[in-house]
Amino acid sequence: MAALFSRIKGMLFLLFLPCFCSAQPAPPLLRFSNFLDPSNMVYLRWDHDERELMTFELQVRTTGWVAFGFSPHGELPGSDIVIGGVFPNGSIYFSVS
């Protein structure tokens, strides 16, 4: 019984090993979040650090592209817009204007 437990414990370690050895950084902890639409298809997460650097994560159910704008008054004139999406071949584009 002890030998079986030892083998199972070793297998569990091997299963969890890729999680600890991943070269990808952990996603940032974003303290604030909100759905931006009544159908809950656009979900925004954000946070800021002590240097006032803002981090955003936008999750959208879409058919291939999304645009997101920042404006001091909630209007299109004078706003900063981010556009991103996926081409039919799977490559990703991202643009700031």
From TrEMBL:
Pfam families, per database record: DOMON (PF03351)
CDD domains given in the database record: DOMON_DOH (cd09631)
Keywords, sorted A to Z: Signal
GO cellular component, one term: secretory granule membrane
GO biological process: dopamine catabolic process; norepinephrine biosynthetic process; octopamine biosynthetic process
Record bears the keyword Cell wall biogenesis/degradation: no
InterPro entries (UniProt xref): DBH-like, DOH_DOMON, DOMON_domain
GO molecular function, one term: dopamine beta-monooxygenase activity
Record's protein name: MOXD2 protein
The organism's taxonomic lineage, starting at the top: Eukaryota, Metazoa, Chordata, Craniata, Vertebrata
Gene that specifies this protein: Moxd2_1
